[in-house]
Amino acid sequence: MADLPSDPLISLVTVAAEHMGYSCLATEPDEVRLVGPRGDGPHFLWLHNLRRRLNEQPLEQWPALIADHVETFLARVDLDCTDPLATDEFRAVRALLRTRFASSDTIAGIDIVGRYVAPGIIAVVVIEQLLTAEAITTDQLHQWQIDSTELFELAEANTRAAGRLEIEWRNYNDAHFAILSGSDCASAHANWLGDYPVIGTYGALFVVSQEGNVYAHPIVGPNALTAMILLGKVAANTYRSEPRPISPAVYWWGDGKISLAAITEVDPDHNVEVRPTPEFEALLTSLAVTCEFAVVPANAVDTALDVLEQYQQMCTAPDNSATPPAVDDLITEINRNGGAVGFIAAVADSRGAVLRTWGPNRGQHLFAVLKLTKDRDLAVLDVETGHLYDPRGHLDVHVTVGDGRSLPYLTRELLDDFVVAAADPDDPFLVVARAEETYIRTRRHEWVYEIEHRAGSASEHFRVYTLRHKVVRDVIWAWAGGDPSWTAAVRWRRVDPTSPGIEAASGVEILQDELASAGSDLSPDALALLDTFLTVRDTPIPSTDLAPMQDLAIDPAILRDLASSHTEEARPNETAKPDDPDET
Questions:
Q1: Alpha carbon distance 502, 100 (integer Å)
Q2: Structure confidence by residue, pLDDT tens digits, 222-243
Q3: Beta strands in 383-516, from DSSP E residues, in sequence order
Q4: pLDDT digit string (tens) for 338-374?
Q5: What are all long-range contacts of 279-287, with beta carbons under 8 Å and residues at least 24 apart?
Q6: Phi, psi of 410, rounded to the nearest 5 degrees
Q7: What is the sign of the dihedral through the CA atoms of 398, 404, 410 and 412?
Q8: Residues 491 and 539 sit within 8 Å (Cβ to Cβ)
């Protein structure tokens, strides 16, 4: 028996190896060299992960655990000797390729093929065989004559095809966690968390402190702070003690991208400090904002005040009786998949329910609750704004607003909200479409609205300008509902493909369109005000004296008065006859 250092682990490894006919020599503190009975070798066994595993076990269990580990390793060695895998041939290994996450610190300077994932983590490609995984080197990659993109695509496809991870849910201090496991390449599945029911309204927190487990938390509300701290403690402690460590940090999965959420530090007394990044801390701050929506059967109310009264009663004096079937069905869906839906039912009784969610993006929450209630005939009151959304009489059309989100249906009330709302000057803020080239859309710039419709091609693309949101609402509503009155309600002009649109529209164009669509409904006072506004709009700002421009300035509130100085409805101008062949 060789003269070995007085290390119980190495001594027990030596005993187990010699029992199987191998000679053993320690070459590093956590490395031994083995030579087989046939003179094969040397084979190197690294003990780092084994030592971490044993640190959590009673000393009396070490001999059995070490013997099992050594026997498993030597069984792999024996198989390699009797039936070696031709790793120099790509065809022989392509089905065995997998991806895993690895610590960017521990593999620094090692020649392997890797891809950056997030701070502290890289993805690597391995050849996975029975009980072992061999990382691909750049030399192997060159020998196979493929590029790293092709290698990763194949390895990721193999990893996903091997099967989904199993999910076990746990609850700590009102923060829900999912433990995803069941694969030696579990860490790689963090790239595809969107395929699992662990994503909340704002993504998910997760840790990959060791290979084999992914801990994830759906980010929905302010309990994300509790989840971040608990996940950070799990990550820091398992990274220090468990085999195959990857990262002690907490990560944030959002829209398919992974970023750092928090770092962890362990003091000499083994206390764990979890510190969020500025980006994630900003999200945590925003999650302190609470949004509430009152949801009631649509046929039970007529006005927003009716729903507001019921909301107040539900909050102050719930009657504890059975909820209406549609509301009960809604709550069942929320409870079944609360993380993905992003709401909780704070109150529910015979009148309806109060749904609560968190975060500053009220528009996103509104879209989500409208989608949940659309097919259940439930009206929704946005408690903060006092707006009531009733799905009765809605149109099933494809509606998109400026940031790319879609409305689940369209009503006059929704049109009012999104037409009057602030516009993005660079993109249409509301588009109603029947097909890719068949749509009507509007956007606003300097209190002037642009409406465009397209009927299948660039040659059938028309435009008009107006200052009145009611005109915009009525024209779009008529178009969406198939009412032909929209064609004559305004002065449509064919769009010149080179025209920049509303940003460069002249005051004359806007005035002509307004007069043509309004007819006698434009009062003399309103006409004078419109003329003054358009004069200001088209007056160049002097380079040396700004006083004349300041004298012409118009308070935006006056422009809002102008918009309301017309009659409620936009009516067709029956006497107006287009004299421009490009008009329709």
A1: 52
A2: 889 999 999 999 999 888 877 7
A3: 387-389, 398-401, 406-407, 430-435, 438-445, 448-455, 461-466, 493-494
A4: 555 678 888 999 999 999 888 877 778 888 899 899 8
A5: 280/228, 280/252, 283/202, 283/219, 283/224, 284/222, 284/224, 284/225, 284/228, 286/359, 286/360, 287/202, 287/219, 287/221, 287/222, 287/224, 287/225, 287/358, 287/359
A6: -130, 135
A7: negative
A8: no
